[in-house]
Amino acid sequence: MHIRRATPADLPAILNVVRRVVPLMQAAGNYQWEADYPNEAVFQADIEREQLWVAELAGQVVGVAALTTDQDSEYAQADWDAAEQAVVTHRLAVDPEVQGKGIAAALLQQAEVLAAEWGLRSLRVDTNSENKATQQLFPKLGYRFAGEITLAFRPGLRFYCYEKRLGAPAH
């Protein structure tokens, strides 16, 4: 497996992964994503900001995650210091054909690499309250449950927040 920054040439493969994931999410009662979100414009903006990462297996894009320091204002509702800068994982998706092979974990590991590079001690992520897979994955990777929030741009949904604290940054 290879983790690298996404390029504009990766957009068709990224959108294909998302198109394959969304129906499975919705079938499981998870309406975090829809046909119009996340979309090409969102991923294009992530690429332009150099904050989109892809996982490749055998040269094929099989996973994606935006690794940013962007925290929605609603993050203040969670049990953490909302003023602290953190590496935040957004738009994490893995091709259904290769789920369970450590791809999401590898993308989340990249968030730790960035935190070390940027001198940050906190990793954060939120997930829809109906996303059972991520609710099992995040604690296995050392994330603690940090409460439930709502997001204005996703009305009617509830999101669970998770945080992982890292050791003191090296000086």
From TrEMBL:
The keyword Transferase applies. Keywords: Acyltransferase, Transferase. InterPro entries: Acyl_CoA_acyltransferase, Bact_Acetyltransf, GNAT_dom. The keyword Cytoplasm does not apply. Residues 1-167 form the N-acetyltransferase domain. GO terms for molecular function: acyltransferase activity, transferring groups other than amino-acyl groups. It comes from the Bacteria. This is GCN5 family acetyltransferase. The lineage of its organism: Bacteria, Pseudomonadati, Bacteroidota, Cytophagia, Cytophagales.
